[in-house]
Design goal:
alpha+beta, single chain, flat, disordered N terminus, 11 helices
Length: about 600
């Protein structure tokens, strides 16, 4: 009987050991496989989300870049178009031109006038005159294209035409009507080719890469060109879009060119955008394979470390059940060790929670810093490109503006018996030249802020000097409230005077033609000199308060939006600040803060 019981006990023990071995082998095989599957699923999910996110962000960044480049080129091209229109209009206003179209003028004299407009070896291909019936009277360079009489009669003011083909080349016209006794008798026409200069191509290559393309075409899509060859009709709307060029899908963004029916567009191949994204995808696939293999290997190692103590613990339990002492083989301790493990886990959990909170706070702070840095970097990039373009354009425009101003001055004094209408036109021309010169000055001031020559400035006389510069207005009244104890400011009087003059000019313009009161206050506060300029205009919305200091942002019909941007830059260069102290439905208050002389 005793022998039978011993045999039964041994059999049961062997069965239990065999079941434990099977269970252990199953865990050692299955758990690493499940770990590998879970890691693979996680890698695929993460990779898919990352791929979609990177692709969307890449497209968004590319659209922003395309829009920025298109807007810059279009904004630079617009003033050039306007200057050419002004030049053609000036020639069209000459009496000799109207006399020639009437059949009684001097052809040689008019030819000399037209020669000032071209043609040349550059982009101007032809210059000439058309009669009111559409026929060509005089042509320099390539022959002009005759136009229907009804088309010419409908053009009562200078204009820029759409693109069309002339001898296989994409061209457009800048024309101005010639009037005699108030009636249109013809027009002066300048035909220009659409080509891109090497500087523009170099700049585009720097901004968008060697495969970036510039396009220009009609807003109605009838004609487009890539500055090298005609592309024919293309459906490219204003804003973002896409088209196919020689079987290649391209992303394109088009911006309107001011004072013309044309659009300026830049494009890049869509494949060029997706190439780095696909490269990232293959990198993720490779890393995912490495992670899966490493996870499976790590899982096998961890499971082995876990199952080995289980086997030892089972053996120890069997030994204890058999009545033998095998506690020295236990891989873990008693309750004290488990308690310590629980306490350590609680401590670890609390530490992880505190570390996570600190990490989230640091991530939020770093994210905000990165966003600010990114915005500043984009702004600096915009300023650098705009500065290069603005400086070159400003220098190029000053010479023709000076010539035009001298010509207008000479005509007004050399020809004493000019008709009143001609004198009015000359006065209008001088005013427009003044506006153009002010715009050029704003551009040049924006691109080259000189080091301020700071000195002690008496605030009261300083404000009076700027008020004397203001042009009197019959509808706007200016009041000054200067505190008796306002301290002297430490600043460059010329630069800060330009800031205050710009703010006063904006305040007066915001109330025209209705009128109102502009109040100038000056006082000392917190060791600073504060000069407030309050108007009674329509105010500035909350969303536009910071935009008004951005370059090229303007809500006026005239100007290019550099005045307040230059003013804030000058104020900060002098250790001060220009800001909006308050704005509502009825009026805006700009505040100029300057350091006091005694605080330095």
């Amino acid at each position: 009987m005793a022998r039978s019981w011993s045999a039964l006990s041994l059999t049961v023990r062997l069965q239990r050991e065999a079941e434990m071995v099977k269970t252990t082998q199953s865990l050692r095989r299955r758990l690493p496989a499940w770990i590998a599957v879970i890691v693979a699923v996680a890698v695929v999910a993460f990779g898919s989300v990352a791929y979609v996110a990177v692709r969307q962000e890449s497209e968004r960044v590319m659209w922003v870049r395309l829009r920025s480049v298109a807007d810059r080129f279009a904004s630079v091209t617009g003033p050039g178009v306007l200057s050419r229109v002004a030049a053609v209009r000036e020639i069209a206003a000459r009496p000799r031109v109207a006399a020639l179209l009437a059949g009684r003028g001097d052809t040689a004299a008019v030819r000399t006038l037209l020669a000032a407009l071209g043609p040349d070896t550059g982009l101007t291909l032809a210059v000439g005159l058309r009669k009111a019936d559409g026929s060509v009277t005089l042509s320099l360079g390539r022959p002009l294209v005759a136009r229907p009489a009804d088309v010419l009669n409908s053009r009562d003011s200078p204009y820029v035409s759409r693109l069309y083909l002339l001898e296989g080349e994409q061209v457009f016209e800048t024309a101005a009507p010639v009037k005699s006794h108030g009636a249109v008798v013809g027009q002066v026409v300048v035909v220009r080719s659409v080509l891109a200069g090497p500087d523009a191509l170099k700049l585009l290559n720097e901004l968008l890469g060697p495969r970036g393309r510039m396009l220009v075409g009609n807003a109605d899509g009838s004609q487009w060109t890539n500055f090298v060859k005609p592309l024919g009709p293309l459906e490219i709307p204003t804003g973002r879009g896409s088209f196919v060029d020689n079987g290649e899908a391209r992303m394109v963004y088009a911006s309107p060119i001011a004072n013309s029916p044309l659009l300026f567009a830049v494009s890049v191949p869509r494949a060029e955008l997706l190439a780095p994204v696909r490269g990232m995808l293959w990198t993720l696939v490779g890393l995912g394979g490495v992670v899966v293999a490493f996870g499976a290997l790590a899982g096998w190692f961890v499971i082995r470390r876990v199952t080995s103590p289980l086997v030892q613990l089972t053996d120890a339990a069997e030994c204890i059940a058999a009545g033998t002492r095998a506690t020295e083989s236990l891989p873990v301790g008693g309750d004290d060790e488990v308690g310590r493990l629980g306490e350590a886990f609680v401590v670890m959990a609390n530490s992880v929670r505190a570390a996570r909170e600190r990490l989230e706070q640091q991530v939020a702070e770093r994210t905000e810093q990165l966003q600010l840095a990114q915005g500043e970097l984009i702004q600096r990039e915009k300023m650098a490109v705009l500065g290069q373009l603005a400086s070159s354009v400003g220098h190029e425009l000053r010479n023709p503006l000076g010539v035009m101003s001298n010509v207008a001055y000479y005509l007004s004094h050399a020809v004493p018996d000019l008709p009143p209408k001609a004198r009015d036109h000359l006065a209008t021309l001088r005013r427009q030249i003044g506006i153009a010169e002010r715009i050029v000055s704003d551009i040049l001031d924006f691109t080259r802020i000189k080091e301020p020559q700071r000195e002690s400035v008496a605030v009261g006389p300083f404000i009076d000097d700027q008020l004397q510069r203001m042009t009197a207005s019959s509808t706007v009244r200016i009041e000054r409230e200067i505190s008796d104890d306002v301290p002297e400011a430490m600043a460059d009087p010329f630069q800060v005077g330009q800031v205050l003059f710009n703010v006063l000019t904006n305040a007066v313009q915001s109330m025209e033609p209705v009128g109102g009161t502009v109040t100038v206050r000056a006082y000392g506060k917190n060791g600073r000199v504060q000069i407030d300029v309050a108007d009674e205009g329509i105010g500035i919305s909350e969303s536009a308060r910071e935009k008004v200091f951005e370059p090229l942002y303007t809500t006026k019909m005239r100007g290019i939006g550099l005045g307040l941007s230059v003013s804030r830059t000058l104020a900060r260069a002098n250790g001060g600040e220009l800001l909006i102290a308050g704005s509502g439905p009825r009026g805006t208050t700009f505040r100029l803060e300057l350091p006091t002389a005694r605080s330095l």
